[in-house]
Specification:
- With about 700 residues, the chain is an alpha/beta fold.
- It contains 30 helices and 17 strands.
């Protein structure tokens, strides 16, 4: 017998509609649920004697996590996608027009289509629980809320707050949702259903939104609204640089809700939703979503069960070490001990964690008690006392081979025979770090990206002697830290830094040819990168780049050679943002908030800026170096698949997500066209642009990375 997703019961003259998708851990909305829900709504429409309807979830920790994204891939045309939206409008409209008050009892994720269900209700009561969050994150998939969200949310929380939520995909915690007017009451989960029932029978349907005085003044008149929409549009275009159509479509839908009739505004939402579903940007972002989920569930070895890691040591209390300690304690829920050579280093690591937690407390993500509880999970010292039970030790010290080998010896001496040693090296081969180890099978690379608490990628780098158990344990640990983790082959630069280096070197060569710092950065920002190459070099540290380049050149060849002129920057004590001297001006002396180029850099390098190169040509010179190297990495087995290569580039260095990653970008360009263009660039700029053999072979055979 087919399991029913929706179950209707009546208790004390109150209808209780339970949502429970069979066989799933979380509720998601699917197109095939429509007929079943229609039957239930038709029944409820005739029962005007009921005092109310409570909509709740049968899952332990999920209201409705959203709509099933897979439905969109089955839409052959924009008309198919538009019908999906319109069908949703009809169902939610029936729910909103029932002859009794409708209350949503929310516990767990209430996102996307789930929040649109709740918005169609008269009242919303949610649990005061860490698992509960409310939001419309469709923009992150290149979409807009297509079930009436762009129309109902602004009427409930105001235009400004609704745009903030929809344009960022921001999720609100229970207390934030209450403050914004999104929910009417926040209660412990144990009494959620009982409190929701109390709202049944209330005479008032569709209670008036509780907008702040500022919102009422700004949004209550045409002039104020025009100013608001103008500012939001400007800010959005500055952020997206026109690469993502969804944010502008969201703004247009909200505006239509003010300027047009209700029917016309809903039609507008459905039409714009359909256009986005069929856009290349949304297709790429949805592909990224599915690939990421697939990777998180993947098991590398049959019969190898990863152990749960509860005891962690972090060697080094600097920014990287502090970030690793923070995600280990707060996300992986482990007990963490920071070991540094100085008390100051330990205190720095602890203070870093405290500031991050206090920021969350101020934003009402956590309570003061939770802050203290999580801080108690991190301790530190200048010796190895208390580290005998360490299951994994992650080193985050300087890029010095002898130092890292000494760290291995220290852990093998002071911890236990099962302790994993994970190196956060960004360039040194793990084989070399493990060369002097007594237990090389327990040495592995675990490469994070800065800042650790924000950057989602981790590279897992086994050397030839690393055991399957060590790989499985480290991979699971990284996942528990909230990381998208890819396993890559050992070698200089691994994957992410290996494809980044040629891109950065080409940008440096363009600078030495006379391209301005602003033009270089702005061009690559327009292309879709989160920061320009010159800004990135300042952020990472010019000195760090200078240390990595020779390692890559020695192992991988001449094409990785960094420009000699950049040594002049080190000689001039220009290390980047860390010491306030780089390509840009830093420090208190700046009058303007806008980032300003330090014009003295040009004299240090002995160059004079000239006319700006065509943006497309400039971008291709940098990006095509990266694409060519990514193709080499896959061909050499550095990465296991094009999927891993795309995820690594996007989550590690911010390769434009709307392009889907280097491999999807190469498919979109056309492998044969890419090879032709690389040959032309080789003739114009040098042998470094020679297309790798893998690309040439694929072009000859008409192959693609994604069939």
């Amino acid at each position: 017998m087919e399991q029913q997703t929706f179950t209707l019961n009546i208790e004390d003259n109150i209808a209780l509609l339970k949502i429970d998708v069979h066989g799933e851990t979380m509720n998601t909305l699917k197109a095939e649920f429509g007929p079943q829900l229609d039957t239930i709504l038709a029944d409820l429409e005739t029962q005007s004697q009921l005092s109310g309807l409570v909509v709740y979830s049968g899952k332990a920790d999920s209201f409705i996590a959203g709509a099933d994204i897979g439905m969109l891939d089955s839409c052959d045309t924009a008309e198919d996608a538009q019908k999906l939206s319109q069908d949703g409008h009809k169902v939610f409209a029936r729910l909103a027009k029932l002859p009794m008050p409708v209350i949503a009892a929310i516990h767990g994720p209430c996102l996307g289509g789930g929040l649109e269900v709740a918005l169609a209700c008269d009242y919303r009561v949610c649990s005061l629980d860490d698992k509960t969050s409310l939001g419309l994150p469709e923009v992150q998939l290149g979409l807009l809320p297509g079930g009436g969200g762009t129309q109902r949310l602004p009427k409930l929380v105001g235009i400004q707050k609704s745009l903030e939520m929809m344009l960022t995909g921001k999720q609100l915690r229970p207390k934030q949702a209450l403050k914004s007017g999104l929910v009417d009451e926040v209660v412990p989960n144990s009494v959620l259903l009982e409190v929701a029932k109390k709202y049944a029978g209330k005479a008032k349907r569709r209670p008036k939104a509780k907008l702040s005085m500022v919102s009422q003044l700004l949004e209550g008149n045409p002039l104020g609204r025009n100013v608001l929409f103008s500012q939001v549009t400007k800010q959005t275009l500055t952020k997206t640089r026109g690469n993502y159509p969804a944010p502008m479509e969201i703004i247009a839908c909200v505006k239509a809700g003010i300027d047009k009739s209700t029917d016309a505004a809903y039609q507008d939402e459905a039409k714009r939703f359909a256009g986005l579903v069929k856009s290349s940007e949304s297709a790429a972002l949805r592909g990224l979503f599915f690939a990421s989920n697939e990777l998180k569930k993947e098991s590398l070895f049959d019969g190898v069960k990863p152990q749960k890691i509860n005891q962690v040591a972090v060697l080094g209390g600097g920014l990287m070490g502090a970030g690793i300690a923070f995600v280990s304690a707060t996300k992986a829920k482990a007990q963490v001990r920071i070991k540094d050579i100085s008390e100051q280093g330990v205190l720095g690591g602890l203070n870093y964690a405290y500031k991050l937690l206090d920021k969350k407390r101020k934003r009402r993500f956590i309570s003061h008690a939770q802050l203290q509880q999580q801080m108690n999970a991190i301790t530190g010292g200048t010796n190895f006392v208390g580290m005998q039970n360490t299951q994994i030790a992650v080193e985050a010290v300087f890029e010095d081979l002898a130092l890292k080998q000494q760290m291995v010896a220290d852990i093998e001496t002071n911890c236990n025979q099962h302790t994993i040693f994970a190196s956060n090296t960004s360039s040194l081969p793990i084989t070399q770090i493990a060369a002097t180890a007594k237990r090389p099978e327990q040495v592995i690379g675990l490469h994070y990206f800065s800042p650790v608490e924000k950057m989602p990628l981790a590279e897992i780098i086994p050397h030839s002697g690393t055991s399957e158990q060590t790989i499985a344990d480290t991979l699971e640990f990284a996942r528990k830290q909230g990381k998208t983790a890819i396993v890559v082959k050992d070698g200089a630069g691994f994957y992410v830094n290996r494809i980044l280096a040629p891109y950065m070197n080409e940008a440096a060569l363009l600078l030495l040819e006379g391209q301005s710092i602003e033009h270089l950065d702005n061009t690559l920002l327009d292309y879709g990168f989160p920061v320009g190459p010159m800004t990135l070099l300042d952020e990472v540290g010019i000195d760090v780049g200078s240390k990595i380049a020779p390692i890559l050149e020695a192992e991988l060849g001449e094409r990785f050679k960094a420009p000699d002129a950049f040594a002049k920057l080190i000689d001039d004590q220009r290390l980047g943002k860390k010491n306030g001297r780089g390509f840009y001006l830093y420090g208190k002396g700046k009058k303007s908030k806008a980032k300003q180029v330090d014009e003295k850099v040009y004299a240090v390098l002995g160059v004079k800026p000239k006319g700006d190169m065509d943006a497309q040509t400039l971008a291709k010179r940098c990006v095509y170096m990266m694409l060519n190297e990514a193709a080499r990495c896959l061909d050499e087995g550095v990465i296991r698949s094009a999927r891993d290569g795309d995820l690594g580039a996007i989550f590690g260095i911010g390769f434009p997500p709307f392009l889907g990653g280097p491999f999807r970008a190469m498919d979109a360009i056309g492998i044969d066209k890419l090879v032709t263009e690389l040959h032309a660039m080789e003739a114009n700029y040098g042998e470094r642009f020679k297309p790798c053999e893998a690309l040439v072979s694929m072009a000859e055979q008409g192959q693609v990375y994604y069939a």
